[in-house]
Protein: Putative 2-succinyl-6-hydroxy-2,4-cyclohexadiene-1-carboxylate synthase
Amino acid sequence: MKYNLRGVDYEVKVAGSGEPLLLIHGFSGSCRQWEPFVESWSAQYQLIMVDMLGHGGSAAPKQAERYGTEEVAQDLAVLLHHLRLEKVHLLGYSMGGRIALSFTMQYPQLIHSLVLESSSPGLEHEEERQARRASDQALAARIEQQGIDWFADYWGAIPLFESLRRLPKQTQERLDQARRRNNPWGLAQSLRGIGTGQQPSWWHRLGDLHIPALLIAGELDHKYCSIAQRMKRKLTDAQLEIVPQAGHNVHVEQPVLFDTIVKRFLDQRRMV
Structure:
């Protein structure tokens, strides 16, 4: 279903009933990412699955600024208002985790619990952010120039996703096809607007967050394991799950364990 949020259309899918669980996918993904878990989670939770701007069935605005952290957070707040939801559980993966954390920091009154998979609070130092912005800008330009097939080949081969190559060919092909369904213009603008270099750093504010959080990382994803361990030390109420035999895409590489970990955390933090 389409929702017009502050002048742009978002594709939103809702399934199940119970306490609301807002789900935010990663870069080059869509709400289809959550399909393997819909049957399990929707038995007890109302799932709100959103295609972020430039992805899936949502709009791809021309202005990169419209994809920015504060803009997207406002959109999500308006969506919850439309759905008449006062509080939600919130789960985000990778880019979706960065968005989820930013949303929580800006609208903590709307969040009951937070699950971050393979995510970070951004880059701490301005020099790092400048370098990453330049890198994201260069990648965005190449996506526009060379198209979605080039991007899918390039993105599937980056070291971050090396562990995915251990998966069955059928699973790898499904992930590849999902990348190729994207609009290259939308991905490029998303990189420019809400890439890691554009996101504000929340490291210095983590101690101010008093919302129960679950941090999930794959043991083969050493960078994000380290980030998650450091985040746990700074957050006031956080659990950390390092998932064996998984890399950056824990929900793909270990779906049964991921399902169990998420449900256990949510079930322990019911609103009533």
